[in-house]
Predict the structure.
Amino acid sequence: MKRIATIQDISCFGKCSITVALPVISAMGVECAIVPTTVLSTHTAGFTGYTVRDISDELIPIAEHWKKENIALDTLYTGYLANAEQIDSTKKFIELTKNDKTMIFVDPAMADNGKLYPGFSADFPSKMLELVKIADVVCPNITEACLLLGKEFKDEGEYDEAYIRSLVDGFAALGIKETVITGVKYGDGRHGAVAYDKESGEYRYLFGENQDCYFHGTGDLFSSVLCGALTKGEDICSATQKAVDFTIACIKQTLPDKANHPYGVKFEECLHLICKE
């Protein structure tokens, strides 16, 4: 059985980060070890007064113990990291636990809709870029890609295929083997991602039917499926399409009851779609 270790926060209530990654990756028939960086009482979208406990000081002791126990990892998957110190700890964790065959998968979860998430300073993307540069696979949305590469952000309807390719090319120039840009819409009723394999030089456009709504945590769903599929040996094209299809299916499952689900989608009712045969 393949093994992924995911490094990101735990929201005790709300469907995002580790509480999405663990069940999704497990359903795909891949072992998922967890490395929590922060514990929150709820996720931060739509809730106020939530509690936050930074536990990133445990990362290095965990890594050292795993190294002592010779725990082998096929993939290290990073998600939301709350501050620069957590990025430094995550880089050290990766150095201590990876082997020659370990895939480094980075979802630079820090921004959307043209701006950083609350709590991040303007210099945070430059710090995240340090982590991105050691990745084999990166999975940013358009906003995150622009912030990391220092490019102008263009909203839906303002960009074209050449613009998205320029973002992909920016990561390839950093030495990233495979890049997936998410949240791409060309105004034709489709919504999905653009994937690029540096070795083949091929751009692939993987789309599904656009759902005109927003749910918290869908980016984490997408990244978890993509990471799981790549770890199992699927190519970047099929893995990205699987992530697109699953994310859209979860949104569709939730739409009839969206008023009662401000904290995420009903992905539990869709896990059978990605379960190991």
Remarks:
- The first helix runs from residue 18 to 27.
- The first strand starts at residue 3 and ends at 13.
- Residues 41 and 51 are 5 Å apart (CA to CA).
- The chain has eight helices and eleven strands.
